[in-house]
Design brief:
Bound molecules: guanosine-5'-diphosphate
Radius of gyration: 21 Å
Main location: membrane
Order of helices and strands: HHHHHEHEHEHEHEHEHEEH
Strand order of the largest sheet: 3-2-4-1-5-6-7-8
Family: Belongs to the GTP-binding SRP family. FtsY subfamily.
Organism: Nocardioides jejuensis
Shape: elongated
Largest sheet: 8 strands, mixed
Function: Involved in targeting and insertion of nascent membrane proteins into the cytoplasmic membrane. Acts as a receptor for the complex formed by the signal recognition particle (SRP) and the ribosome-nascent chain (RNC).
Enzyme class: hydrolase
Helix content: 40-55%
Distance between the termini: 10 Å
Length: 299
């Protein structure tokens, strides 16, 4: 929590502080509520969740109002509700029938997929799980090299194919290596070319199909760059129409003033944010915990 707070400091903790300041005004008049709405929209929370939150705050602070209104406690509760603490945020990494768990990692180039695969492998290895990585982003030699570096650093094998080779064949080989070698988990990094929806659907569909000749995919993680705002939301929608996304990883929250995207993307896709990226370093990936997140926001 301390680290989360530090990482958010100066960025989106401005949202929490701003809200607290506005809600603590002597009179909560219409202008103030408008300022609150503006602040929420600027933080990328999205229109519907903003209205929902403002409505709840208006009701609760009116009823419980007056000087003694426990503004901070009410705001904290309502923000936590907004990110839905009831969602199951654990990664599905346990395969059935002695098969490995299979995690497919998707998202546009630059979102942080390869870095996230590396960071997750590190966490799993620390939990004493055996891991194989599949470098199926064959269109970018740099991505394959980058994953190979992570593999060396973490001490896990990386299955890679020929440059510009078929991503599906690398994915297949990675899954096969995991099944044959009795590994616990295989993480497959995919290409993020968002050329068009049909192309993406073909490519990811094929990757998933060939993997499932070996073992069922247990988790499809969509990696989204938190700094991309509405553009990121459009990408999220396209990916969720192409594959059944089961979890979201929100990267670069350390550099974003827009933590509200957590709320927006969950509402939009109906899928939980499971992990958040808080920097470029190997340890800068954390489980998303609604209460800790809101506490960090409120400072
Ligand atoms: P990919 O193309 O989706 O595989 O993206 P990469 O994993 O190559 O990441 C793109 C850039 O974003 C790299 O410079 C990463 O170091 C950086 N990056 C990834 N995750 C985070 C994060 O959580 N915070 C910050 N600040 N940078 C990140």
């Amino acid at each position: 929590l301390v680290r989360l707070r530090q990482r958010l400091a100066g960025s989106q903790s401005g949202l929490g502080r701003g809200l607290l300041a506005l809600l603590s005004r002597d009179r909560l008049d219409e202008d103030t509520w408008e300022d609150i709405e503006d602040l929420l929209l600027t933080a990328d929370i999205g229109v519907a969740p903003t209205q929902q939150l403002v409505e709840r705050l208006r009701t609760r602070l009116r009823v419980e109002g007056g000087e003694a209104a426990p503004v901070r406690a009410v705001l904290r509760e309502e923000l936590i509700n907004l990110v839905d603490p009831s969602m199951d945020r654990r990664l599905s990494i346990t395969g059935a029938d002695g098969k490995p768990g299979v995690v497919l990692v998707v998202g546009v180039n630059g979102a942080g997929k390869t870095t996230t695969v590396g960071k997750i492998s590190r966490i799993l290895v620390a939990q004493e799980k055996s891991v194989v990585l599949g470098a199926a982003d064959t269109f970018r030699a740099a991505a394959v090299d980058q994953l190979a570096t992570w593999g060396e650093r973490v001490g896990v094998p990386v299955i890679r194919g020929a440059e510009n080779g078929d991503p599906a064949s690398v994915a297949f080989e990675a899954a096969k290596a995991a099944v044959d070698g009795g590994y616990d988990v295989v993480l497959v990094d995919t290409a993020g070319r968002l050329q068009n929806k049909a192309g993406l659907m073909d490519e990811l569909g094929k990757v998933k199909r060939v993997i499932e000749k070996q073992a069922p995919v247990t988790e499809v993680l969509l990696v989204l760059d938190a700094t991309t705002g509405q553009n990121g939301m459009i990408q999220a929608r396209v990916f969720s129409e192409v594959v059944d996304v089961t979890g979201i990883v929100l990267t670069k929250l350390d550099g974003s003033a827009k933590g509200g995207i957590v709320v927006a993307v969950q509402k939009e896709l109906g899928v939980p944010v499971k992990l958040v990226g808080l920097g470029e370093g190997p340890d800068d990936l954390a489980p998303f915990e609604p209460e800790a997140f809101v506490d960090a926001l409120l400072g």
